[in-house]
Amino acid sequence: MIVRTIRLMVLSFVLMFALAGTVYAAGSAAYVDLQPADAKALIDKTPGIIILDVSPYYAKGHLPKAINHPVGDGSLDKAIPSLDKSKTYLVYCHGDAPSRLGAQKLVDAGFMKVYRLAGNYKAWEDAGYPIEK
Fold this sequence. Notes:
Helices cover 46% and strands 13% of the residues. The protein is an alpha/beta fold and 133 residues long. A 5-stranded parallel sheet has the order 1-5-4-2-3. Strand 4, helix 4 and strand 5 form a beta-alpha-beta unit.
């Protein structure tokens, strides 16, 4: 009888933690990764989209109409309060870690429409889409 009671208690705790994790995951916001073709389609169909380059290499090449707030030097953190949370954002960099961090910073600040260019600047350029220097 005691063994059965202990098993039921353990099962109850496991179930409680599993449900709590599911609720948290379902309620948390996230950004969406887009392949270059899907990112291009989003840009073309979304008036007012903000294309956000979070790299320090903006001058070496960037997507047309992109604005630059590097994530590594704190510029993005300083800019976030002045950015319009109602807009759609496409975030990219020249590397995965900074673009993931930049996109997540927007999500954590309450931005609801955040996309990240999978493969970043190189994938965009390799796909033959326009760039500016």
